[in-house]
Design brief:
TIM Barrel; 9-stranded parallel sheet; 47% helix; globular
């Protein structure tokens, strides 16, 4: 499954092009369902190669202030797991090629029901899951059922994932490996280029899966630096912050929100695509 799905096909195409990919993260339902859908549907044309869609949760312990605030905005606007899946289904009706990975926490999935969630996610067109609070020791909870359902399970590796720990981290990982380049929450300071290059090389010694690097990438220049050594650069907090910057004091989206966010993604994509030329 992991070698024939959209994620594998996209990374194979990127490799054939001789470039890294851009993975963009937005929070589902932020700042409201319709605005989020407009951003989501515009991401591929703006240059996103893969899309991570955050599932809003009331206790996002791994997320920094920007993504926490986005999740709260989405929940206030009525975001629920069912509506997240509706966003994916609407997107998939117009785009059959761009991989979509749901990122979040186990509680909403558990509450929805694992078997039901996986069936509905697969039917909606979800390609992968990143569930940040399920370690490898809990693979039977969701990871193994996801793989059996034909949904990639993308694992996080961190600077503290040493050579002794990595085999467990990577055992059931599929799609790609998401390397968190700095310890701590999303939106933190960036790791040095040398540290990222060293980490990617170490991961490559343990797996043949593509390695995407995220956390702390805020500019096209930083995205380009990562794209020179990794298979993809992941940008989340900087995009989510762009959404927040286009809200009025009442939280209502300004008319420029969608074009401004997509314009920023175009800049990031240009940085990534020109990184190895």
């Amino acid at each position: 499954m992991s070698e024939t799905g959209r994620i594998a096909r996209r990374f194979a195409a990127l490799k054939a092009e001789g470039r890294a990919g851009l993975v963009t993260f937005i929070t589902a339902g932020d700042p409201d369902h319709e605005t989020c859908r407009a951003v989501l549907e515009g991401l591929p044309e703006a240059g996103a190669d893969l899309i991570e869609l955050g599932m809003p949760f009331t206790d996002p312990m791994a997320d920094g202030p920007a993504i926490q605030a986005a999740g709260l905005r989405a929940l206030k606007a009525g975001a629920k797991t069912k509506r997240v899946l509706e966003l994916v289904a609407d997107f998939r009706a117009k785009d059959q090629d761009t991989p979509v990975i749901l990122m979040g926490y186990y509680n909403p999935i558990y509450s929805y029901g694992v078997e039901r969630f996986l069936a509905d996610a697969k039917a909606a067109g979800v390609d992968g899951l990143i569930v940040v609070d399920l370690p490898p020791e809990e693979d039977e909870e969701l990871c193994i059922p996801a793989l059996k359902a034909g949904v990639n399970f993308v694992r996080l590796a961190t600077p503290t994932s040493d050579d002794a720990r990595l085999p467990a981290v990577l055992k059931n990982t599929s799609g790609f490996v998401y390397y968190v380049s700095v310890a701590g929450i999303t939106g933190a300071a960036s790791a040095s280029d040398a540290a990222v290059a060293e980490a990617v090389a170490r991961l490559k010694r343990h797996t043949d899966l593509p390695v995407a690097v995220g956390f702390g990438i805020k500019s096209p220049e930083q995205a380009a630096a990562v794209a020179r050594v990794a298979d993809a650069a992941v940008v989340g907090s900087a995009i989510v912050s762009r959404v927040a910057a286009n809200l009025g004091e009442d939280g209502v989206p300004k008319p420029r929100l969608v074009p401004d966010v997509l314009g920023f993604v175009r800049q990031l994509a240009a940085g990534v695509r020109g990184a190895r030329t």
